[in-house]
Design goal:
The chain has 10 helices and 11 strands. With 345 residues, the protein is an alpha/beta fold. The chain folds into 2 domains: 104 residues, no CATH class; 226 residues, 3-Layer(aba) Sandwich (Rossmann fold).
């Protein structure tokens, strides 16, 4: 825990002084008590007495003052908070190699089932969009809170040739930021820097200012693929665009990591998971890379992503909590004093 105004903590030195004052008042009260002939007569005159209870309200009041002084110093703490708004784009590989059956029943079906379970586990207020990519990329479902629409979009996947991982990232960004004028060709051989000779933004597109990677907490991209890029823009250039917008890209690799020949329906093809590129994409965007070699692994990956997609750890001022504690302790102290002694001590 840290404090915005740590200099105010010096006020806590008042607390020991108050304790000394309380002890002094108790001793002074004893000295002014009428001296009686014997201890037995004194006990009969004074009755049973309040005992330890007399010290409880002052102790609670002292704690209330301590909490109030801490609130004045404006304490902060790193706590986990739910995100008020969140949009998640599922960018999913639909290349022909997703027919392979090394992940049962096959890669495509396993990825669809895991993605649908992930969607079911998200809070209702989280928007979900779906982008499919093979040789090209397409938005199969714009971000929506309708789970039925998202599940239907995942079920509509059509396998195609090619693997354009970069296109999947770029189109996901264009879906998240429709006013930024992001297009696939912006990543092909040149970068879109405002004010530079390569600035190819549309005339009505607002000026773009890069932000720190991973700083945009209202959206994230989850990209699943089983192969390496065969066409389209460089995924690392696309990842740099995501990083400049603060969007985290979580990458999920599925299938074989070593080059293998996979055959199905009478023909064969060589596929290899490009883990190095996927890891670099996640590093550039401050996301994370996951490998799933089986259907169970894939489900576990999505289960883990579900929890981290909707909360964030944030340095937050908690002065209100200490102020509330101070008020509560004061009320309890006053209530006990009235209940036990018929007055506010």
């Amino acid at each position: 825990m840290s404090f915005i105004w740590p200099s105010m903590l010096w006020l806590l030195v008042l607390l020991p002084l108050l304790v000394l004052l309380y002890v002094w008042l108790l001793r002074r009260k004893r000295k002014t008590t009428v001296r009686l002939a014997s201890v037995q007569v004194a006990k009969l005159a004074m009755g049973p007495g309040p005992g330890w209870r007399r010290h409880v309200p002052p102790a609670l009041l002292l704690l209330a003052m301590a909490a109030g002084l801490l609130a004045v110093a404006r304490p902060t703490a790193t706590i986990t908070l739910p995100l008020a708004e969140r949009t998640i784009i599922l960018a999913m590989d639909v290349s022909g190699s997703m027919r392979a059956e090394d992940v049962k029943p096959n890669r495509l079906v396993a990825s669809q089932e895991a993605a649908k379970a992930f969607v079911h586990g998200l809070p209702r207020e989280v928007k979900v969009g779906v982008v499919s990519f093979a040789g090209t990329a397409a938005v199969v479902q714009a971000p929506t809170v309708s789970r039925d629409d998202v599940l239907a979009a995942i079920d509509r996947f059509q396998l195609q040739r090619g693997t354009a991982t970069g296109s999947g990232i770029v189109l996901s960004l264009a879906t998240l930021f429709p006013d930024h004028g992001i297009e696939i060709q912006h990543v092909t051989g040149q970068r879109n820097f405002p004010g530079s000779n390569n600035d190819i933004r549309k005339p009505d597109t607002p000026a773009f200012k890069p932000v720190p990677p991973g700083s945009y907490n209202s959206a994230a991209i989850i990209m699943l693929t089983d192969g390496q890029r065969t066409t389209g823009p460089d995924p690392l250039e696309a990842a740099k665009m995501a990083a400049e917008r603060g969007v985290r890209v979580y990458t999920v690799g599925i299938g074989t990591t070593s080059g293998e020949i996979i055959g199905f329906e009478g023909w064969s093809m060589r596929v290899r998971l490009d883990e190095e590129t996927l890891k670099n994409v996640s590093v550039l965007t401050h996301g994370e890379y996951f490998y799933a070699g089986t259907a169970d692994d894939l489900k576990k990956v999505y289960e883990g992503l579900s929890s981290r997609m909707v909360v964030e750890r944030k340095e937050t001022e908690v002065s209100a909590l200490f102020a509330a504690l101070s008020v509560l302790l004061s009320v309890v102290a006053a209530g006990l004093s009235v209940m036990w002694f018929g007055r506010v001590a």
